[in-house]
Design a protein that fits this description.
alpha/beta; 7 strands; 7-stranded mixed sheet; 44% helix; 289 residues
Length: 289
């Protein structure tokens, strides 16, 4: 049996890092508080009936122009180094990869975020992910400054990346592969071998899709912020809920590793089932020639 792939998909803000990624450096560099920046974004969105993600991307461009800050890809990348993570994140990937190796599986990690991809690209953990999907800017060829949203991912658009990852249609421009009918034997990873980890309402569509298709969805919360995920529990959107603690032997690690074990056991049973049925059919046909 070929090594099955287990894909772990993560939201980023308040899932891996402790706050919205813009709060660490981008907003302070504007001379604002997070409340001021996100307040302006909210007013802009409400006044113009804008998608909230497009509103914050516009406000990033507009606020930088006001403060004479060049909003380049390099500038955004540089902000990634100041991100603070939940306990255990820095060692999480090596531990989970090693556990998958012991199970005979290949583990792949993906980011599916409504945050700014260029900031995530500059983070200390960016190299851990097979693909990072997030909101991106288009840059002027001469000034190198952001001029337009190239990719905006709101909570419903996140779900396309569940399908992309399953089919191996990683290139955003590859719409044909994304929308094609893909049989199981041509999928990069089965939905049942997916784990989605997120923190709140913007993750609901992805959590529901992964859970409904046989994978596992996990909601994480910050210390003393259980109310943030209470509706996810009440509406049965998730399989597990726990604190955002990625340290060894944490509840989160136990839920993830148990899920991985069950996925690999299923794959092994499925493989034996197919081989046994095929062997029986061959024997039966030989005896009746």
């Amino acid at each position: 049996m070929a090594k099955p792939v287990i894909a772990i998909l993560y939201d980023f803000d308040k899932t891996l890092c402790t706050e919205d990624m813009q709060n660490y450096s981008f907003i302070p560099n504007l001379g604002m508080t997070p409340e001021e920046f996100w307040g302006r974004t909210g007013v802009l969105g409400n006044n113009h009936s804008m998608d909230k993600i497009l509103a914050y991307m516009y406000e990033m461009i507009h606020a930088c122009k006001e403060k004479n800050i060049k909003l380049t890809k390099e500038y955004l990348n540089s902000l990634g180094k100041n991100i603070k993570y939940f306990p255990g994140v820095s060692t999480w990937f090596n531990r989970i990869n090693a556990f998958g190796e012991r199970l005979g599986a290949k583990v792949e990690h993906y980011i599916v975020s409504s945050g700014t991809k260029e900031i995530i690209d500059g983070s200390s953990i960016a190299h851990e992910f097979k693909k990072i999907y997030g909101c991106e800017f288009l840059y002027d060829e001469l000034t190198k400054e952001a001029i337009w949203p190239k990719m905006a991912i709101n909570f419903t658009l996140k779900t396309q990346f569940v399908f992309r990852i399953s089919k191996g249609a990683f290139d955003i421009s590859d719409e044909e592969k994304l929308n094609s009918d893909t049989p199981d034997n041509r999928r990069h990873v089965f939905y049942r071998n997916m784990i989605y980890i997120g923190d709140g309402m913007t993750d609901i569509p992805c959590m529901q899709v992964v859970k409904d298709k046989g994978g596992k969805s996990i909601a994480v919360y910050r210390p003393n912020d259980q109310a943030h995920v209470s509706k996810l529990v009440h509406d049965a959107r998730i399989n597990f809920v726990c604190q955002a603690d990625y340290r060894e032997n944490s509840s989160l690690e136990k839920f993830v590793t148990m899920s991985m074990e069950s996925m690999i056991l299923y794959e092994k049973l499925k493989d034996k089932e197919l081989k046994q049925i095929k062997a029986f059919q061959n024997k039966y046909e030989d005896n009746n020639v």
